[in-house]
Amino acid sequence: MSSHANKERSVPPPALTVVASDAITRDGVCSWFRASGLVRLLPPGAVADADVTVLFAHQVAEDTLATMRQLVKQAAKPAMKSAMKFVLVADRISEVELMRAIRYGLVGFVPRSQGCMDQVLQAVLRSREGGVQFPDVLVKSLIDRMRSLQEDVLEPNGLNVAGFKDREIEVLKLLAEGMDTAAVARQLDYSQRTVKNILAGLVFRLGLRNRTQAIVYAMRAGVI
Fold first, then answer.
1. How far apart are the C-alpha atoms of 15 and 182, rounded to whole Å?
2. Taking the model in full, what pTM does it have?
């Protein structure tokens, strides 16, 4: 047997919870997932142990978002290694609701009208690898919104999408290379006070604790 096959066998199936407003939908969906053999189905109350939660709704509304928010709170544990993930199956979702749902951990949206459980399963499996799955029309909506944000809000204020100003990135790059504030000030021809003010403003604006966390945040954002 190949090493690739052994690797596939060694990876456990994603743990999954299903949430639906009616028992008939939930029971039918659970039966389908169970028969697929590609997921490990958990009881509804085990959201904290799930890799992803599939949430069924008719139309995404405030109560749907409230359910997501409540499940996130319910699953919140100090020992959790990653944020909660949702795949949402619904008739439709507005741009505003989509942005809010993404904040709660939405990684996939499947239109309920299509009625294709294979697409739901694909979204679940893709999320396990860090992927997302949205219809093209929603992807275009997100791109348009990000472009508008960049042009109308960020660029006029000297910010990028990650929320950093150019001189903040310059400072963080040098700090990440091991320089102290005095060396950074000399390199950029700033005073030490200016460097410290730049860092203090950044840490406060992004709600971070210290400069080390700011460096890590910038690295994860891909700006340094």
1. 50
2. 0.61
